[in-house]
Amino acid sequence: MTEAMDLKKALKEFFGFDAFKSNQEAIIKSLLDGRNVFVLMPTGGGKSLCYQLPSLLMEGTAIVISPLIALMKNQVDAIRHTSQEDGIAHFINSSLNRSQIEKVKRDIRGGVTKLLYVAPESLTKEENVEFLKTVKISFYAVDEAHCISEWGHDFRPEYRKIRPIINEIGPAPVIALTATATEKVRTDIKKNLGMTDAAEYKSSFNRPNLYYEVRPKTKDIDRDIIRFIKQQPACSGIIYCLSRKKVEELAEVLRTNDIKAEAYHAGMDSVTRSKTQDDFLMERIDVIVATIAFGMGIDKPDVRFVIHYDIPKSLEGYYQETGRAGRDGGEGKCIAFYSRKDLQKLEKFMEGKPIAEQDIGRQLLKETAAYAESSLCRRKLLLHYFGELYSKDNCENCDNCKHPKQQVEAKTNLTKALEVILATKENFRDDYIKDILLGRRTDEVCAHHHDDLEEFGSGEEVDERIWNAVIRQALITGYIDKDVDNYGVLKVTKEGRKFLDNPVSFQIVEDRNYEEEEMEAEPQAGATCAVDPALYKMLRDLRKKLSKELDVPPYVIFQDGSLESMATIYPQTPEELQNIPGVGAGKAKRYGTEFCKLIKRHCEENEIERPEDLRIRTVANKSKIKVSIIHSIDRKVALDDIAVAKGIEFDELLDEIEAIVYSGTKINIDYFIEDVMDEDHIEDIYQYFKESDTDDLEEALDELGEDYSEEEIRLVRIKFISEMAN
């Protein structure tokens, strides 16, 4: 079947569509002609049809290699709807038992099955290889092909074994498909799959219906997300978090606030995952909270928002995850929360990995940070990353385009940057170029004697953020390029050399300063985040009065953030008070009565009705991990041993313990502090907190001086709060 009319007829017959999208028809023809095919098509572009339709038209069974067990079930169900025969599509993976696998094999032998989905791990099993040797294979489809490349956002070593296994089973055309791949990744995929001769089809990455926004990540992120979701009631959405723990916690917080949400991650059993997926597809739940690490195989066309709670590890990952929004062509909002602290955490996770892997990981992270911090059109940045030119200056559908920053002239700065790249023989990455411009005598700069260059320090009067913007925007404009084979090394293009010969105007927009934005967004003294400043002042006065009576610093009773929440959601009973961040049952019981009385009186006197949408409820701090930590401390287990047992960093354990004592639970960690700290240090820090009117860690570090470590101060602060407040 080679005629275009016949293909369109088959498309209508099997799938009910009247016309092909984008490159679909050309891709299918190439595969039917027996060619290897490489497909780069963004999420929602119709990749799966490129192998589903030809599999129904060709003799034999097509093998589809996919890493997503959830997506296999989803796609098999969809294909079965095109036929009266259920056996037309099957999958083999770890979720099937022996008798179910035998049923699949019978259907394949009987010529019923046209599509067989397998996970790469299943494909490499000897019994499956031996069985597939006896089967007529129409072609192999490698889905999510970016998993082959170490430069891809989801590298899986088992994908490297696909070509040798194909050679063992028997030759047939290969179609490799991916939604996200830079030139480096594309080259890697084709080389590894032995298909450098493949017909390549690349669709546009532009998704005009998606709105992109990056927000500073503050401690009120949960509140921001809840408000955002409540502004689009009954809309489907996905929230990505880095850790399983955060996934579970956030899903619980959303449910507490009457949002129909469930968690979804690789640590859950397959039955629960499958049920959650079905509930999402059937709209029994509105929001799924998932880990970035676990590929979500949910093909739902009307996802209206995708939120990144944590910034992802790569722009490929970010693009693919945001691509789950608006697949029906309707509105899709993509909101990412960004903090430099998250970047530092991700870099820390890389420690211990092979040096080459760390290097790749850091380069990918740098690209993500550049995207987040830039004030340029987000769409232009994303498309440039994937090698596509976006000619418009304003896409009108991202935060930077809706609120553009003023452009500044940077002709002189660009000239200096290009001169430094050429003076260093086009052998270095952007960080090194910036070191030369800023006159930094790093070990590497001195080793190459580049501190002797005439250009050394030529841009030291310019802020580093300006240099970031100059280099980034010169890449997008085409004055400089990044070497694909030696990732990150900057080269001056023909256009760049022309610019040096005859400099023209070069306008840039300065990067955003997220550290400043985070500080501006954080609650300041004076209750900028409290809805009712008058009540906030009264609550502070009451706290001051109690602190004098009890002879404890005010923050020991309730922290400023807790008072701000009280002046926002008006709790009037000790039970409601426990929904306030930093207030547990102990604190509510010990101090809560007077505060609740004051709030109730204030509401009655001012005829205040508590608006439901502002009552953001938090989950009471009774999670399993907290209970387990308390039990371990009761048994006097060393804190570093508790951290190892829980699989968390020591500073994360201190976060948990701080949450426990700040919410009103008394614990005793003297056994650990006395073992690891000098007695005088304990006494000095304890006395500091007794006399200070703030428990702020930065202020304590400044005041106490460099003889005292951050860990020591935190440990004694925990002891102090526990003894004085609880």
Q: What is the gist of this entry?
A:
Helix 5 links the parallel strand 3 and strand 4 (115-118). The strands form 4 sheets. A 7-stranded parallel β-sheet has the order 3-4-2-5-6-1-7, sandwiched between helices. Strands 8-13-12-9-11-10 form a 6-stranded parallel β-sheet, with helices on both faces.
Structure description:
This protein is of the alpha/beta class. It has five domains: 4-202, Rossmann fold; 210-343, Rossmann fold (3-Layer(aba) Sandwich); 407-516, Arc Repressor Mutant, subunit A, CATH 1.10.10; 523-614, HRDC domain (DNA polymerase, domain 1), CATH 1.10.150; 624-725, ATP-dependent DNA helicase RecQ (Arc Repressor Mutant, subunit A, Orthogonal Bundle), CATH 1.10.10.1390. It contains 35 helices and 17 strands. Strands 3-4-2-5-6-1-7 form a seven-stranded parallel sheet, sandwiched between helices. Helix 31 (650-662) packs parallel to helix 35 (710-725). The longest helix is centred in the C-terminal third of the chain and has 21 residues, at 585-605. The relative contact order is 0.06.
What keyword list fits this structure?
35 helices, Rossmann fold, 6-stranded parallel sheet, 7-stranded parallel sheet, 726 residues, 5 domains, alpha/beta, Arc Repressor Mutant, subunit A, single chain
By secondary-structure content and strand pairing, the structural class works out as alpha/beta
Low-pLDDT ranges: 523-528
CATH structural fold name of the largest domain: Rossmann fold
CATH architecture of the largest domain: 3-Layer(aba) Sandwich
Q: What is the CATH C-level name of the largest domain?
A: Alpha Beta
Strand content: 5-15%
Largest sheet: 7 strands, parallel
Q: Estimate the helix proportion, in percent.
A: 40-55%
Write down the Rg.
Answer: 29 Å
Look at the structure and give the mean pLDDT: 85
Count of helical segments? 35
Read across the widest sheet, the strand sequence of neighbours is: 3-4-2-5-6-1-7
Counting structural domains, the number is 5
What global shape is seen?
globular
Distance between the termini: 78 Å
CATH superfamily of the largest domain: P-loop containing nucleotide triphosphate hydrolases
Strand tally, please?
17
